[in-house]
């Protein structure tokens, strides 16, 4: 019945879309409305299509005898006063499906999970919520209080596909509370690896779009993830929930027009991530407001010459700096101040020569005009106060030791050297953030772009007018009573009809506009963001409606977060909320026992989130001869794959050994292949059925946050974990079971 209703709705939306597409008349206003309707129907069809698999996945039997079906979208019966047939999982009345427990049944008698394959029901799991029943699990057992345990465990034990799936059928109570939390203000979600932070962040985006559809469709939602591989890993989750309007970007993509992926030393990124960079950039800009070393001759008018000296430039520079506007916008102030001074200088020359003021206002205006027309003068002015793009400013700065010295006078030489490079345009993610800051500090003169847009519009109208003129000529022989094109259309309207740039969604407009402000911003792996990156993100979200998910113990980036309070204080003081996720769904208990030792070494006070399941396989280690590492690795990969069935395997290696061990530093990595070799940093947020960690000692040694990197690597496994160590094993991994080569996995 529900699928029949889905089909009806789909048919209806397709028919409406087809009718709207056929409407091609009307004025520009009607055209805009038509485009809006087309987008609306197309979105609706996409939503209905996305609901096809697992349309209805739950049923609630209430104590009062009512039944509620829960699914991916809401469906209603038009023949029966729009009685709800299926409730959208995000509707308030569906919340009980996720949060009702035996202890607090909230009017629910029975919760049923319905499994389907295409349009056939393949299984059901029932839970009777009986407050008098004794809990199966003891206090402290992570399985106590799970919702839909059987369905959940089936989902967790399933082979990974290389892409994240939605968890809409098995959201747990503590996750649901975060997903449905109020949209206002900053919400920080802290949770250990595998507690569902990413899943929760994505489902929260879907929930917020459902609940605040109008506002958020207009302003858009921004999702920031750690790297492009991660964004590919999650890119099917929101579409599978019927939501397509979220703009997903890495920090390196935040500055429009630049996709910053170049790699740089961690220390350089750390330096660029400090808030002090605002001062450095300010100084770098002031350094571009130069004075001539000696007076420069300027030819103008009829081969006359006037000398431009440093004092004149200094006073013009002061005037421009005092104007209070940004560098690029202050440039006209500087130029005019120089020209005024030169005019005065010429007038003073005449006065000195003739003893009286010989020039009247008209003469002075003429000299002013001649100076304005002097290409030589503009060339000199361009050198003294150049109009700068953020890219020019940074590329010039990073490729010049002198400019770096001028912008960073108080920094030690080694730090300045960290920023010096040959290719100024090899943008790194940390640079993207600085480009944004530079754009703020330079000020953008958009008058040229506006003039260009107006010119293009005028050209389109002129072309349309030509077309109409030709049509009118052709129509001269036509009966005067007959309607012709020009009776119905003017050039503006015709031009508007032929403006075939498709209407952009909020996400598309936002991606192209640095000054766009979003309705909501979600940051995943938020612990990796530098102080400078937070500054940019806060500019993108003045409403401070944000969800930040992360785990401080996983911070790998040197510029990353070590305290949420510290990073948020400058923007919201202490007006932010913290929620915790406390159960590990990904990593089985055997793997977590190993990772827990590493966590204790990072922070003895940190709490280990209990795993919800065991894998039945003990993690192992194997010592290998360094010279044979590559060969042994290849053999072990083959052996692991043979035992994996359809699952995925990741080989996680030290960043400095990525290329040597068969990985690639380029992003994104191909997640569809069964085996991937990734650096520890690249594996952030991902998961695999089986993980081989290579050379843990190097992982720990190669970064001051090396233990966190190792912790991230170990916690990527959903089933099996092996560690290959070509040297000594770091003592934090002592718990690993030694494995003889080449026997099978160690069974527990
Ligand atoms: N309620 C749930 N139902 C089914 N699967 C879940 C649930 N919660 C989490 N998972 C699964 O657990 C795994 C880990 O989730 P996720 O990647 O969101 O964790 P995370 O906290 O972001 O981890 P990390 O910090 O290590 O990146 C995913 O495969 C996710 O689908």
UniProtKB/TrEMBL annotation:
<dbReference type="GO" id="GO:0005829">
    <property type="term" value="C:cytosol"/>
</dbReference>
<dbReference type="GO" id="GO:0003677">
    <property type="term" value="F:DNA binding"/>
</dbReference>
<keyword id="KW-0547">Nucleotide-binding</keyword>
<dbReference type="GO" id="GO:0016787">
    <property type="term" value="F:hydrolase activity"/>
</dbReference>
<feature type="binding site">
    <location>
        <begin position="191"/>
        <end position="198"/>
    </location>
    <ligand>
        <name>ATP</name>
    </ligand>
</feature>
<feature type="domain" description="UvrD-like helicase ATP-binding">
    <location>
        <begin position="170"/>
        <end position="588"/>
    </location>
</feature>
<protein>
    <submittedName>
        <fullName>DNA helicase IV</fullName>
    </submittedName>
</protein>
<dbReference type="GO" id="GO:0043138">
    <property type="term" value="F:3'-5' DNA helicase activity"/>
</dbReference>
<dbReference type="InterPro" id="IPR027417">
    <property type="entry name" value="P-loop_NTPase"/>
</dbReference>
<dbReference type="GO" id="GO:0005524">
    <property type="term" value="F:ATP binding"/>
</dbReference>
<keyword id="KW-0378">Hydrolase</keyword>
<keyword id="KW-0067">ATP-binding</keyword>
<dbReference type="InterPro" id="IPR014016">
    <property type="entry name" value="UvrD-like_ATP-bd"/>
</dbReference>
<keyword id="KW-0347">Helicase</keyword>
<dbReference type="Pfam" id="PF13245">
    <property type="entry name" value="AAA_19"/>
</dbReference>
<dbReference type="InterPro" id="IPR000212">
    <property type="entry name" value="DNA_helicase_UvrD/REP"/>
</dbReference>
<dbReference type="GO" id="GO:0000725">
    <property type="term" value="P:recombinational repair"/>
</dbReference>
């Amino acid at each position: 019945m529900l699928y029949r209703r889905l089909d009806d709705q789909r048919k209806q939306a397709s028919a409406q879309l087809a009718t709207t597409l056929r409407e091609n008349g009307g004025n520009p206003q009607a055209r805009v409305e038509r485009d809006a309707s087309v987008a609306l129907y197309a979105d609706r069809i996409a939503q209905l299509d996305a609901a096809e698999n697992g349309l209805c996945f739950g049923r609630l039997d209430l104590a009062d005898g009512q039944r509620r079906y829960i699914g991916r979208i809401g469906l209603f019966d038009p023949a029966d006063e729009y009685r709800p047939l299926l409730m959208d999982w995000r509707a308030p009345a569906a919340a009980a499906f996720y949060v009702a427990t035996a202890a607090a049944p909230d009017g629910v008698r029975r919760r049923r999970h319905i499994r389907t394959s295409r349009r056939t029901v393949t299984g059901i799991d029932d839970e009777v919520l009986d407050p008098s029943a004794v809990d199966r699990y003891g206090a402290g057992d992570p399985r106590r209080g799970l919702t839909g345990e059987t369905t959940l465990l089936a989902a967790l034990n399933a082979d990974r596909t290389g892409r994240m799936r939605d968890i809409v059928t098995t959201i747990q109570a503590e996750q649901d509370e975060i997903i449905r939390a109020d949209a206002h203000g900053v919400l920080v979600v802290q949770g250990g690896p595998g507690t569902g932070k990413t899943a929760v962040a994505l489902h929260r985006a879907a929930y917020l779009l459902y609940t605040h559809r109008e506002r958020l469709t207009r302003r858009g939602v921004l999702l920031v993830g750690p790297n492009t591989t991660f964004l590919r890993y999650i890119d099917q989750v929101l579409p599978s929930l019927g939501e397509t309007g979220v703009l997903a970007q890495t920090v390196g993509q935040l500055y429009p027009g630049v996709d910053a992926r170049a790699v740089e030393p961690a220390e350089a990124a750390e330096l660029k991530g400090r808030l002090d960079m605002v001062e450095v950039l300010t100084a770098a800009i002031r350094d571009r407001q130069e004075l001539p070393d000696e007076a420069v001759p300027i030819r103008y008018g009829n081969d006359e010459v006037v000398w431009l000296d440093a004092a004149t430039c200094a006073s013009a520079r002061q005037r421009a700096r005092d104007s209070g506007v940004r560098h690029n916008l202050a440039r006209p102030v500087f130029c005019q101040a120089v020209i005024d001074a030169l005019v005065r200088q010429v007038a003073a020359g005449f006065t000195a020569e003739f003893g009286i003021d010989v020039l009247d206002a008209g003469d002075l205006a003429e000299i002013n005009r001649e100076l304005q027309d002097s290409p030589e003068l503009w060339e000199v002015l361009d050198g003294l106060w150049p109009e700068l793009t953020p890219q020019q400013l940074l590329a010039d700065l990073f490729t010049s030791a002198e400019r770096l010295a001028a912008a960073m006078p108080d920094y030690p030489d080694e730090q300045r050297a960290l920023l010096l490079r040959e290719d100024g345009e090899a943008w790194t993610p940390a640079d993207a953030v600085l480009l944004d800051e530079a754009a703020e500090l330079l000020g953008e003169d958009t008058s040229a772009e506006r003039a260009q847009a107006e010119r293009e519009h005028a050209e389109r109208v002129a072309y349309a007018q030509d077309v109409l003129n030709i049509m009118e000529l052709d129509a001269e022989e036509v009966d005067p009573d007959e309607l012709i094109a020009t009776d119905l259309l003017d050039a503006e309207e015709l031009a508007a009809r032929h403006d075939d740039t498709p209407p952009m969604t909020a996400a598309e407009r936002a991606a192209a506009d640095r000054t766009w402000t979003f309705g909501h911003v979600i940051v995943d792996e938020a612990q990796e963001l530098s102080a400078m990156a937070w500054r940019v993100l806060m500019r993108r979200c003045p409403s401070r409606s944000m969800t930040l998910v992360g785990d401080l113990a996983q911070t790998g980036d040197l510029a990353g977060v070590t305290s949420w309070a510290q990073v948020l204080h400058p923007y919201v003081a202490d007006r932010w909320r913290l929620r915790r996720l406390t159960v590990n769904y990904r990593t089985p208990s055997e793997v977590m026992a190993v990772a827990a030792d590493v966590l204790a070494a990072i922070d003895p006070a940190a709490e280990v989130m209990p795993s919800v399941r065991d894998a039945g396989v003990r993690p192992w280690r194997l010592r290998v001869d360094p010279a044979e590492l590559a060969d042994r690795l290849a053999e072990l990969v083959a052996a692991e794959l043979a035992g994996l069935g359809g699952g995925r395997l990741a080989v996680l290696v030290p960043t400095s050994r990525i290329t040597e061990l068969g990985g690639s530093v380029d992003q994104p990595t191909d997640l569809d292949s069964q085996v991937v070799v990734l650096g520890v940093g690249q594996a952030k947020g991902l998961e695999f059925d089986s993980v081989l960690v290579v050379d843990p000692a190097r992982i720990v040694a190669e970064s001051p946050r090396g233990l966190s990197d190792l912790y991230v690597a170990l916690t990527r496994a959903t089933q099996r974990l092996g560690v290959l160590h070509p040297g000594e094993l770091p003592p934090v991994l002592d718990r690993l079971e030694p494995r003889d080569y080449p026997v099978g996995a160690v069974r527990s």
